[in-house]
Amino acid sequence: MKSLRFVRPFPISTVSFSSATLFSLALLPALFLANAALAADAAPLKVGAYAMDITPENFPISSAGSLRARMVKGVHDPLHARCLVVDNGSTAVAFAVCDHCMIPREIMDEAKSRIEKTVGIPAKNILISATHTHTGVTVTPVFEAEVDEPYCDFLTDKIVEGIAEAWERRQPAQVGYGSGHDATQVFNRRWFTTTEYTNPFGVTTDKAKMNPGGNIDALINPAGPIDPEIAFLSAQTPDGKPISVLANYSLHYVGGIPGGLLSADYYGEYATRLAGMLGADGEFVGIMSNGTSGDINNINFRLGSTPRREPFEQIQIVAGSVASATKTAYEEVEYHSALPIDVRETEIELGVRKPTKEEVAQAKAYIASQEDSYKAIEGVYANETVYLADFPDSVKVKLQAIRIGDLAIVSTPCETFAETGIAIKDQSPFKQTFVMELANGYNGYLPTPKQHEWGGYETWRARSSYLATDAEPKIRTALLGLLNDLAEEK
């Protein structure tokens, strides 16, 4: 039986679990038997890890993560592409988790192609993702932020170098996985409230509100669940020396960074804290990937107000709490020196919510009437409307499923809601599964159809939220198909 890994404040009516869950349970005996047979035939595992510094060399530089353009002048703590390679002699997989808000598919595809040519790891066996720190360099155009093109080339080079270095550092290893929990740091940020509000398009019927404020009396219920699981893959040397931990937690980001500075946010601090708790040396690479956190943040709105913190203080609190929960689960991990590794990848086509000609004309008229069209929220979305008019009618997204023993890792290129991650975990035929979002590209928020009906920031049409309202069930179905295909091949 799977351990309790999430908290639901209400039943999820938009997802059905029954048939898929029964199918998954039916597969488990065959899956376990196949694991034993394949592990016996697999060569001893080798693992390599490396934290490649991707901090920009030139300042000032554009930083994403805000409705307005921001130029930063320095760094609070370095940015990294934290890289991990797992190789069983016949199949190798590689991960690169980068301290960025979001990364476009073009950069990731270019890096994968070069890695395949130079290192030999197939492009389909490489998963690259962004952590979603809101104090990284702009490499994806969203809202007013403009891409820094020279840095895009720099980032691509560094991802390639980082995975190549991890490959070179491969050493005999044993690998296991675990699951910790920390419900004290994740809160659903979308709420049903008793107050109405007008969205940037002049609509007053939105039912859900992001970050509803400190008026406790106006709050009804969160519009979705949380997922407090800290799932992780752990690699050690045969004698127990920590090599790397690849963790996954569904928390959007923390913030509280001093103005005008770049930072890896809590993702970087987690790596530092975990290394200290495990007594690891300087070669250990802790990695925190983002789970399904499109509707999750670190603010408990039930309190009405949050304690005043010094810069970076809240990041330290969160990182310490999550690292501590990871360590508790880490001590129970069972390790294996040989495991089967397999990968599935697919590409699906999704519709785009494009504005009408009338909406574009109204947006252009608004922009023309303003001295600073980004000053008001209406102007921000007017500009987004104009940008989306030039989008194609559909886009192709890349999805991936990686199996390492009884652990499965799947990817989504979106800011995915927690309920989607929970559904995938529940219906997966593997003993443990986690979802890495903002991986293999960036395609904006991924609300469920019901969340689209409820409205709110994450559904407002923009380059940050443009997929058709049926995109979530299509992505979820495709990912479960990849997982079931992996399980059937055992």
Automatic annotation (TrEMBL):
<dbReference type="InterPro" id="IPR031329">
    <property type="entry name" value="NEUT/ALK_ceramidase_N"/>
</dbReference>
<keyword id="KW-0732">Signal</keyword>
<feature type="domain" description="Neutral/alkaline non-lysosomal ceramidase N-terminal">
    <location>
        <begin position="47"/>
        <end position="254"/>
    </location>
</feature>
<dbReference type="Pfam" id="PF04734">
    <property type="entry name" value="Ceramidase_alk"/>
</dbReference>
<protein>
    <submittedName>
        <fullName>Neutral ceramidase</fullName>
        <ecNumber>3.5.1.23</ecNumber>
    </submittedName>
</protein>
<keyword id="KW-0378">Hydrolase</keyword>
<dbReference type="GO" id="GO:0017040">
    <property type="term" value="F:N-acylsphingosine amidohydrolase activity"/>
</dbReference>
<feature type="signal peptide">
    <location>
        <begin position="1"/>
        <end position="39"/>
    </location>
</feature>
